Amino acid sequence: MAPIDCKPTPEDFWVAETLGELGESELLRRLKQFAPPGQLDDDTAQINQNSQELLINTDMFVDGIHFSDDTTTAEDVGWRAVAANLSDLAASGVDQIIGINVGLVAPAHTPWDWIEGVYKGMEAALNQFGGVILGGDCSNGQQKLLAITALGTLGPLRLHRGHARPGDVLVVSGAHGLSRLGLALLQRDPILECVALPEQLKNAAVMAHQRPQPALKALRALETCKPAELPWRAGGTDSSDGLLMAVQGLCQSSGCRAVLHSNDLPRAQEWPEGSSWDQWCLNGGEDFELVLSLPASWARAWLKVMPRSQSVGYMEVGPPKVIWADGSGEVIGSSEFQHFKQN
Predict the structure, then answer these.
(1) Measured between alpha carbons, how far is 166 from 259 in angstroms, rounded to an integer?
(2) Helix/strand/coil for 79
(3) Around Cβ 139, how many Cβ atoms within 10 Å?
């Protein structure tokens, strides 16, 4: 038997560079590769915006709350951060995505490789959906955190939670619960040990959690299929906090009551049956689908051109709450994630 060569290789001595070793100037120099030339050379970003109105939103992503090394690679963190912001823009009727500002906080011991991965993920998402990194800031801190501000121009349809009306049909752009199932699979949740799930469903769920897709194509389809006789009025939001919270938001802002059909919940193909699975569909969160309140003729037109879309209920006159169509009462449930929830 040949002797084992124990001679160390250069790779054995490689140690990941940390932010503390790089320093702020070197960090910024490296981050410039992810933005247009000259974009990060100043403290402000210049945006050439004609006469269109701007849409702006900001989201926070905190380590241990919104992402974890156990379930999300650095590139997935960057992708998800962009997708969540662009989903908010889509749910408001964005036309052109201009770009994002990135606030980065990380401990000094954070490896550069992690930061690079996050920016590669953001770059990949922007390359697919539009926009660039406009600028931002970075700081030392005890916990990794991303604060993303996204900017876009408003298109012909200003979607708003307050624009729902009685008589509207409630429609969604796709299935719900997949991201929550993906998280459970990545965490090896014991609740799944006795459930035989198809591989296709499991793969779709993990992808939905790690690489969500903002519903920009669904928005474009909504704009192009509007019946000519209707005004540009539609209620809308996204389901980042869960389907039920999205519908509740429409009710609260519009002063209408929503009626849901339990048999028409937007379940994914081969989704298991049972009340707990219906709760994931209603309250799982991070699905980033459009939830719309549309005039009936517009809803029918959209359902025809959007294969994944589905009608789930309707809006009516009544106190701003969500009830079941079968008369069983108010839809009870809450998002599994709540800001400032005390354990």
Answers:
(1) 11
(2) helix
(3) 10
Query: Does the domain spanning 161-324 belong to CATH 3.90.650.10?
Result: yes
The CATH superfamily holding the domain 19-42+52-154 is PurM-like, N-terminal domain (3.30.1330.10)
Tell me how far apart the alpha carbons of residues 171 and 27 are, in angstroms, rounded to a whole number: 45
What are the Cα distances from residue 331, in Å, to 175, 215, 278, 319? 19, 26, 12, 13
Tell me the one-letter amino acid at 11: E
Q: How many CA atoms lie within 13 A of 325 on its CB side?
A: 13
Read off the amino acid at residue 283: N
Report the alpha-carbon distance of residue 322 to residue 257 in Å, rounded: 6
pLDDT string in tens for the chain (343-residue length): 444 444 555 444 455 788 888 887 787 788 778 877 776 666 677 777 677 899 999 999 999 888 988 899 999 999 999 999 999 999 999 999 999 999 999 999 999 999 999 999 999 999 999 999 999 899 999 999 999 999 999 999 999 999 999 999 999 999 999 999 999 999 999 989 889 999 999 999 999 999 999 999 999 999 999 999 999 999 999 999 999 999 999 999 999 999 999 999 999 999 999 999 999 999 999 999 999 999 999 999 999 999 899 999 999 999 999 999 999 999 987 555 454 354 4
Q: What is the CA radius of gyration of the chain?
A: 22
